[in-house]
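It is worth pausing here to work through a concrete case rather than discussing structure prediction in the abstract. The textbook approach is simple: state the sequence, then state the predicted structure, then interpret. We follow exactly that order.
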Amino acid sequence: VKLPRITPSRTTQKMIRVAMNVAIGFCVPWTADAATRIQMVTFTSCGSWRINGYTPGGSSNKPLAVYLHGTDMVYDNQVSREITEMMANKGFVAVNIEYANADYPLSSSQCTEFGSKAQQISAGIETLCTSLNQTTLMLDCTLGVAMMGYSQGGQLALLLGNYNNRVTAALSICGTLATAVGLDEQRACFASSALQLPRTKRRITIGEEDAEFGAASMYYWDGSPSQVIQLAAETSGYNSCSTHNCIQSDGSGFYVSTSSETGAGADHTWWVNFQGWFGASEQDSVKEEFKNAALDEQWGLPACLDWLARAAVANTPTPSPAAVAPEQQVTCGTSVRMQTFLHLAINAMV
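Step two, the predicted structure:
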């Protein structure tokens, strides 16, 4: 007999999470639809940060998957929960790591600022891979660490391999080289030559109208398909490919989707159902067109996560210690909020 499930309100869930996190100190599980929902301890790196997610359960050890939300998006919102649950259903301990996402680096020293964010996230990964949570969740990071993220989070997912040697594969959703903040500076951070993770372990999905990562210049409001393709090629490492579909035989590479393919648009935010001001709602969710795309649609979330799950565990070497000592070498920087995100709301109104 299947008993009805009683779901507490969002506010009640938050109160329970805080109280239990303080009382127990390491892991609080509760039942989700297809995996076990977990809340981890906070970790300290330029502040106090949280880790939430899902575990598939079972008695065997599991690899790790980490999702990073975009600039100004609410931590642990519905988007994060949907994506991490999908990865948990593929056998990963899948989590959303909170990080300093309220700003986007704009200065000429933006690589240093992105590096500080990456080191902070790396500290969260180390907390998972080396603490009591490893035993509690049957987590074995030597089986693989898959990174995934959206926009700034997608850029950081690609960059994490420079700061933590445990990372074995990365998926970036709409995150390559930002045209509004200086391409030379961005190339120094995120061009393929700046990324230590091999190109065979990187994948990008992005819409051809993405103005944040594909405007013809920093003064244009609309994305240029040719520019989106070029910047995706530079970030992926497959520079000789100049078509929309540059997915390689091993699944790495990039795919630039069109509105006709997705049926829901192809700009920077096409795949998210925003419930208010950009990224400001816990109720933001993944659009069905992206979440439930056919597996042979290489731009869709199922194909991307299927590749990520396989790439993260395939021929995974035993990782050396983290590239940085997260608790000691993090440089806490400051950034200016990325004003170009303002036009996302403007575009939504016209």
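Step three, interpretation. The chain has a mean pLDDT of 82. The chain is about 30% helix and 15% strand.
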